[in-house]
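Encode chain A's predicted structure.
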Amino acid sequence: MLECASNLACAGAEPLGLTNCLNFGNPEKPHIAWQLTRAVEGLSDACEALGVPVVGGNVSLYNEGGGGPIYPTPIVGMVGKLPDPEAAAGSGFASEGDQIALLGPFTPSLAGSELEKLRGELAAGLSAVDLQLQARTLALLRQTVRGGGLSSAHDISDGGLACALAECCIAGGIGARVDVAPLLARLSADDPDLALFGESVGGVLVSGPLETIEGLASEAAGESLILLGEVGGDSLALTAGVATLNVPVEEARAAYEGGLPDRFS
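Encoded structure for chain A:
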């Protein structure tokens, strides 16, 4: 749900309502009933914090097979109102020399991440989320986007910061130079994987002229904003301590757009 709200805020839109589909296993089993209960409670808490009503929904239960139940899968769709589409920032980096910053209370974890899945691991739980802080950050992002000063805004989701940066480069057709040292310092950590591929809610990549980013930093206060680098070049160059990664934008685009075979060529 918070990712849906972030997507709307990145366009400057105010959330109006949501619908959902709650997909779970057999609720007659105590641990499945617990999963369903906690999911509903979590959605309720988030709706109250963001002031978003549930206007419809669906429930799909007894989703089990020989291998056991599916993972608990609540799916959310959210609609919002955008006062001025012309002011909305795109998701892609746009201008050489724009500053790149991370806005929001982003505390990445490998628990539940795509990287953890690729490693064949499954953590016992996820970190708690400060819903009130999330709501304030989204309000600030909406306000800033509507002001028209940002060149881009894109939330961090599947794959973490590294994937979000790659998506921004691909969408804009331009590279970026990024050092995640400030994020590692915030986390009091030295694990490049955590900074690059850790996942959490509340992180948004923004880019724009230095004066715009500095103004946003002064407004962010408790919501926090850290500078990560700048837009430019034809590759995504990442630095995380002693680890470095340099991927040409067109190489990233080929991997992104060619992940599934083209059946119609």
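The mean pLDDT is 93.
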